[in-house]
Amino acid sequence: MNRWNPFYKALAILIAGVLLSFSYSVLLNLLLFAVCMALILSFPQKSRKQLAWIMIPVSIAAVSLFMTGFLHPASGTGTEEAAKAAGTTFSSYNFSAMTAAAGSLYNALQLASRVLGFAGLGLLFAFTTDGEEFILSLMQQGHVKPKFAYGILAAFHLMPDIKREYSAAKLAYRVRGIRLPVFSLKPLFASMVNCIHWSENLAMAMESKGFDGDGGRTAYREIQSGRGDLLRAVILIGGVAAGMVLFPF
């Protein structure tokens, strides 16, 4: 996966995600998620701890949608009729297997598995792609203007300075004895002043070095692409399309 050209990888994952949005197959979503996790875990240099932390909000979203689909199914799934047959009311939300209709359970699994399927594709790209290589690939294979691409890179590398500036602004308020709420926006506004100055200086520096998007430029670091990248894209997209046919449910 790390040899896959980042531009073609992003394009293939985007197309696979669009195809997946038309499918409601629980088995396909779970299978795709399992394959993505297996590919991510096959990289020894990737942090298992970081992956575990990211999976916490993903799991919360999946469980939340599962409970939403289970407790509030679409009309016609049979949950209300099953609850009445058991001598209870639908508003009681009886979790026993006797009152839970198979339709509502499958509806909940569909919602939860879709979260896992899309999360698997996103995590696969995030954990197997270098950010700088992706931007360079966008310029060389995606023909994105250098001014726009290097602007993204510059903003990305400015993030540590922005975080440090925000901490300094909060410290300045504490030194003056001003207590701020936890989610106060005052330190953010103070730090954004310097960020605006940095962006102006960065824009002038890029123009002075010829990063204005006009004329051709050579690349010091070339991102290679070949038939193998297209083959991997066809395998991913074709696999999702085949799964939609083989696993309709």
TrEMBL record:
Family matches, as Pfam families: CbiQ
Primary subcellular site in the record, as a coarse category: membrane
Subcellular location: Membrane
Tagged with keyword Transmembrane helix: yes
Transmembrane spans: 12-39, 51-71, 230-247
Annotated keywords: Membrane, Transmembrane, Transmembrane helix
InterPro entries: ABC/ECF_trnsptr_transmembrane
Membrane topology qualifier: Multi-pass membrane protein
GO CC list: plasma membrane
Keyword field contains Calcium: no
Annotated protein name in UniProt: Energy-coupling factor transporter transmembrane protein EcfT
Source species: Bilifractor porci
Organism phylogeny: Bacteria, Bacillati, Bacillota, Clostridia, Lachnospirales
